Fold this sequence. Notes:
Elements: E1 3-4, E2 21-24, E3 27-30, E4 34-35, H1 46-58, E5 63-65, H2 74-82, E6 90-95, E7 97-99, E8 107-109, H3 113-127, E9 134-138, H4 156-168, E10 175-178, H5 182-188, E11 193-197, H6 208-216, E12 220-221, H7 241-250, H8 254-265, H9 278-286, E13 292-293, H10 294-301
Parallel strand pairs: 4-5, 5-6, 6-9, 9-10, 10-11, 11-12
Antiparallel strand pairs: 1-13, 2-3, 7-8
Helix pairs in contact: 1-2, 3-4, 7-8
Amino acid sequence: MTSSTPHSESTSDGASRAGGAGLLAGRTVSRIGFGAMQLERLQDDRGAALGILRRAVELGIDHIDTAQFYGNRFANEVISEAVRDEDGVLVVSKVGATPDPGGPYPMRLAQRPEELRAGVEDNLASLGLEQIPLVNLRRAVRGPGLRAEGEQLVDIDDQLAEMTALRDEGKIGAIGISNVGMDELRRALPVGLGCVQNAYSLVSRDDEEMLRLCLAENIAWVPYFPLGSAFPGMPKVTDEPAVLAAARSLGRTPSQVGLAWLLHHAPNVLLIPGTANLEHLEANVAAGGIALDDETLAALDAVPSQSGEIAVE
Length: 313
């Protein structure tokens, strides 16, 4: 029986890259990154948020995913404070929504081209950057998440034209897209994409064809909800018997097995699990060192993909 673990390389400061090395927008980064969304839970403990980010860098993470609407700028601001130039961290942000702290949800859609531009400017200001290395266009024509209606229903070509202009102006380094279908992906390919972010996990693989197209085109596949979701109506990786059996056999947690499967599944997969807990952060990084033998991989690959959507992300 053979086994494999993700390849390992070093960061700019000599630390081993979390989960090994992958490519994102033409740059080598850790395959396990950090998603900053949950940092908003630490708005009353800024020191703890800074500590999480510094520990992430120490653990070999050099790829952080954020957004202006995470905690109404809080995530961006603590990233700006915690991450130093010498850390060599690639910061990825997204546009397509904006903070709405007084609304029914903490964000509202901002899909119009002028709103995308304003979103980039706001991200630049709160991150303290002159250029954001990669910005994802978060579409809203399909679930999960808020759905576009009325003036927020914008053709992707119009949005990509604005994103391309922002890239040409040097405000962003590369363009990604998020929450898209195959038709939108194909329409976006001529722009030159750095990554695609869609909901994807062991138990939710409806976008497998898109993942394979991205692999063929050398585009990073960065799944959100990598363990499924705790929201009603969406399956959870940690409920699957095959995942639980693998976790028992390996002496790992079901969450770690779910993350390890993603890293083994395709070489263009990069992960951005988020947490506001140091122990969970370290467990997520440790998932990058898990070896899955052929028998275990076959059992996990055989788990059926399930469909399920929620109304709001």
